[in-house]
Specification:
The chain has 7 helices and 8 strands. α4 packs across α5 and α6 packs across α7.
């Protein structure tokens, strides 16, 4: 028994020595090359994003597109590097015939595909989102019942950060309708309420003058796409009249522009003694009962 154990130990010892001498260097070289390729891929994608951010006129838009594309390239590239590294290790280092393995993987992949239809749907939908350029990293969108700024897009999921700072992870397969609130331009729609007794022509003229002054302001010139419009009265209700103001602005600038316009409208109303509208008040009470005689 002891002689048999010694023979087995001697055989494994010789095998390990030979494996370490002949195949361990291959293993080390393959792993180092895979690590270098992953690091090189990350370096290239980061350089592309940095170059796009330093670009001229269309820098911000181009940077968003480049970040979206490089994120997908990085994830797909890492997967391919890991896959081919594993196949190479099995074939050249561990001397395993990978052809039956690949055939079995194909059959297993087909079976998994039927069982993982949700995952397949996520990947296919993510592919069309990227190809059709429905939204990009940095866009503010509403998808699958949640809204926020897009922080990351992969083939399987989309990450959104809402105004409260909450991070939403949305599987691409659950995205049926995309509402992109920062594509090309956004619109500020303001309903300005004035008292019913105020002269409508005077209020409209005042709003138009204020809108023109705002459009010519150098501080907001780059944020506004077209000159603001004041179509007129939008609706009348109770003791107030709503006047409509429309302003087309660049993506993401609608909130700052709306706040500034409200401030200027309030100042203009105060200077011109325009009474702001107040909603009709409804007083609910109980009539005093008649005294019994």
């Amino acid at each position: 028994m002891e002689e048999r154990f010694s023979t087995i130990w001697h055989y494994w010892h010789n095998y390990l020595v030979a494996w370490t001498r002949d195949r361990a260097p291959k293993l080390l070289v393959i792993l180092v090359m895979a690590f270098i390729f992953v690091r090189l891929l990350g370096l290239i994608t980061r350089k592309l994003v940095a170059l796009s951010e330093r670009g001229p006129a269309h820098g911000p838009v181009r940077a968003q597109q480049v970040r979206t594309i490089t994120g997908v390239i990085r994830s797909v590239g890492v997967f391919l590097i890991v896959f081919f590294t594993g196949m190479t290790l099995l074939k050249d280092v561990f001397l395993i015939n990978i052809e039956p393995l690949l055939a079995s993987a194909g059959i297993a992949g087909l079976a998994i595909g039927f069982g993982a239809q949700t995952l397949v749907k996520d990947v296919i939908n993510g592919f069309f989102i990227l190809v059709e350029d429905q939204f990009e990293v940095g866009d503010t969108v509403r998808i699958a019942g949640v809204s926020g700024a897009v922080e990351e897009i992969t083939m399987r999921r989309t990450a959104l950060r809402d105004s409260d700072g909450t991070l939403h992870i949305v599987p691409n397969g659950s995205i049926q309708i995309v509402s992109n609130m920062t594509r090309d331009w956004s619109q500020v729609t303001l309903h300005v309420a004035a008292d019913y007794s105020e002269n409508s022509d005077r209020v409209v003229e005042l709003l138009q003058e204020m809108a023109k002054e705002f459009y010519n302001d150098s501080a907001f010139k780059d944020d506004v796409v077209a000159e603001p419009q004041v179509p007129g009265i939008e609706r009348v209700r109770g003791n107030e009249v709503d006047y409509l103001m429309l302003v087309k602005v660049r993506p993401g600038k609608q909130y700052a522009v709306a706040r500034e316009l409200r401030r200027r409208i309030k100042t203009a109303f105060e200077k011109n003694n325009i009474k702001a509208g107040a909603p009709a008040q409804v007083i609910i009470g109980q009539m005093p009962s008649a005294e019994k005689t």
